[in-house]
Structures are given as C-alpha cells and as structure tokens.
Design goal:
- Helix content is 12%, strand content 25%.
- The protein is of the alpha+beta class.
- It has two domains: 158 residues, Mannose-Binding Protein A, Chain A (Roll); 118 residues, Mannose-Binding Protein A, subunit A (Mannose-Binding Protein A, Chain A).
- Strands 3, 4, 7, 8, 9, 10, 11 and 12 form an eight-stranded mixed β-sheet that branches. Strands 15, 16, 17, 18, 19, 20, 21 and 22 form an eight-stranded mixed β-sheet that branches.
- A hairpin with an 8-residue loop joins strand 8 and strand 9.
- It is globular, with a radius of gyration of 22 Å.
- 46% of the residues are buried.
C-alpha cells in the first residue's frame, strides 16, 4: 500500500515562509512544486511506501537481479519527473521499512565498496554509517567477492549483509524528491540535482541512464564514473570484439583503477562463472608497454596483474581480464568483449 501525508497548508501562502524558495529549510522534506512534493513534504504515488523519515518513497521491483542490473532497473523508473534509484535507507527505521517490503525478505540496496575494499558508500557517495546495523561478523567479504549490500529482514530488525554483486536478489528502489532536481527540468540549464537535459541522448527526467525501460543490455557503473558497461555471450578475437563494441556505440573497456577493474569482473563473469574478457589495451606498438585505445598507459600497478603476467612476449599483445586481474593474451583467441560507453 502506498503511504502519503496530508497537505499541511503551509505552501506558498502558508506558515513555512521558506517553502518553495529552493532551500531545504528545517521541517521541509523537499522544496519544489511537483506531484511528489506538496507543501514541501514528500507524497508517495500508488504502489510506493513513504519512509519513516518522510524523505523518500520505497518500492520493490518484481523478480531477482544482480546488483548492476538492479541499479539499471531502478534507473529506468521515472515518476513525476524524478528518476528512481536503488534505495539508500540512512536510518534504522528506514532500513526496517525497506526490508519489510522485500518479497523474499532480502533486497539489494544502493551501497557498495567496489571503489575501496571495506569502505562501503551509498550510491550518492556518502559513507555508510559505522554504527549501521550490520549482521553478525558482517561485512566479511567472503572469498574476496562480496562488494555489494543487501537489506535482510529475517532477524527481527533489518540488518545489512555484504554479498557478491552477481548474486540474484530482490531489488528495492526509492524515489527521492530533492529540493531542485525536477523544478526546471528541460529548461536547457543543468540545475542542482540535474545531469543533463531531456533532449540529450540517454537523458530521461534530467538524469542519465544506461538503457531504455525495456532493455538492460547496458549496465550502469556503480562508481559514479558516468559509464555504461556490457558484454556479449559470444566469444571472438580482439579485433572482432572491438568491432562488436563499436557497433553498440561503445568501445572495449578501459578501467583506469582497481575499483573499475573489480566492476569489470562482475560484468564479465556473467552469473558467477569466471570468464575472461577482452579489454581495450595492447602492447603491439612497444612490447611490454600496454596502452589503452585512447593512448593512455595501462598503469594499475603490479597488484592488478595475474601471477607471472604479462608473459606472452610478441605472441600475446592484447589485454584481457579474468577474476579482476589483467593478463596478456594472443589476439586471435576467442574471449567475450567487455564494452563501455559514456551515458
């Protein structure tokens, strides 16, 4: 059931002098005039539940997805000009509310430590509070592969657990009417909270998304890098892999730090089975000096390479990745392409 608050009667002619002035004053949950923000209080549409904090609306999506597909699926939902995202329940009460809505009691929420192992951050870059209600011995990064968060309602009060990002789980989205993100959407000015204008490619409700509502071929990077990622089930040579990515409007991926390489692992693996993927780097010009397709050096440090790699000499001039590590491979073997494109 959806939940809403009644009109407070304190809008432009009411008792909160600041309501509607573009500033989030005390007592306001939002500060714009829209279907989701009335008298500077959040209203939830049918099918969405108002969080106890009163600052956002929660709703689960049907079915189970991996984290990246979950993030993309939430991003395709837009209501009253506001784009949804994976839920970010900051308070214990909000976490309990979000988890209670999960059909199977466990849902992905919008936090991960892909950029820095052990440092979980919400999708808006805010650190997960150290006092958050973690489960026993959580987070434990089991097998070095647990970088995403779920809310689990099966313990009386909800707890947080870290899981592998390719685990199939329920999905909890939120609509968050901020103080300005939709107030002037479409006026050709990127106002606070806006990333783009609706007439731009891949822009919906002044936010960039990776895929159309009916397609999840591209997955949104969870690192705030404004990249969309995808792979292809079919393997091919390095050259053919690059051609495939170009035909999709992208290029072979060029992860520039260890966090991005970790994300590449999850997208490349496809359901947890470790697979190798082509990346957009070669040392064909100067043996031993790998460069990305844009000419930048591949400089992720020795820790990023598989043991004893690179070791192929002139017989292995193309860059691949498996299990979040780099290797040089013969360019004519068949590997899956890992593609990237900007929003």
């Amino acid at each position: 059931m959806a939940s809403a608050v009644e009109s407070t009667g304190v809008g432009s002619g009411g008792g909160l002098a600041g309501c509607g002035n573009g500033v989030l004053d005390e007592g306001e949950a939002c500060d714009l005039d829209s279907e989701l923000c009335v008298d500077c209080q959040v209203l939830c549409p049918p099918g969405w539940e108002r969080a106890p904090s009163g600052t956002r609306c929660f709703a689960p999506l049907p079915g189970d997805l991996g984290y990246f597909d979950a993030a993309s699926a939430c991003a395709t939902v837009s209501l009253a000009g506001v784009r949804a995202r994976l839920a970010t329940p900051r308070t214990t009460a909000d976490l309990d509310a979000a988890a209670s809505l999960c059909p199977q009691g466990t849902c992905y929420i919008g936090a991960n430590d892909l950029a820095d192992e052990g440092s979980f951050r919400w999708v808006d870059g805010v650190d997960v509070d150290a006092a958050a209600p973690w489960g026993t011995a959580q987070p434990d990064d089991l097998d070095g592969r647990q970088d995403c968060l779920v809310a689990n309602a099966g313990f009386g009060t909800a707890i947080l657990e870290d899981v592998a990002c390719d685990l199939l789980s329920g999905v909890m989205c939120e609509i968050l009417p901020g103080w300005a993100e939709a107030s002037r959407c479409g006026d050709s000015i990127d106002d606070p909270g806006e990333e783009c204008q609706p007439n731009e490619k891949t822009c919906e409700a002044c936010n960039r998304i990776c895929s159309a509502p009916n397609g999840l071929a591209w997955q949104e990077s969870p690192l705030g890098s404004h990249l969309c990622l995808r792979t292809d089930p079919a393997g091919s040579s390095f050259v053919d892999a690059g051609t495939f990515c170009s035909a999709q409007g992208g290029r072979l991926a060029t992860p520039d730090d260890l966090g991005a390489l970790e994300v590449a692992r999850y997208v490349c693996d496809g359901g947890g089975e470790t697979k190798s993927c082509w990346l957009g780097g070669t040392d064909s010009r100067t043996e031993g000096s790998f460069i990305w397709s844009d000419g930048a050096p591949v400089d992720l440090g020795d820790i990023a390479w598989q043991p004893d790699q690179p070791n192929g000499g002139t017989a292995e001039n193309c860059l691949s990745t498996a299990d979040a590590l780099l290797a040089d491979s013969a360019c004519d073997i068949a590997l899956r392409p890992l593609c990237e494109r900007a929003y």
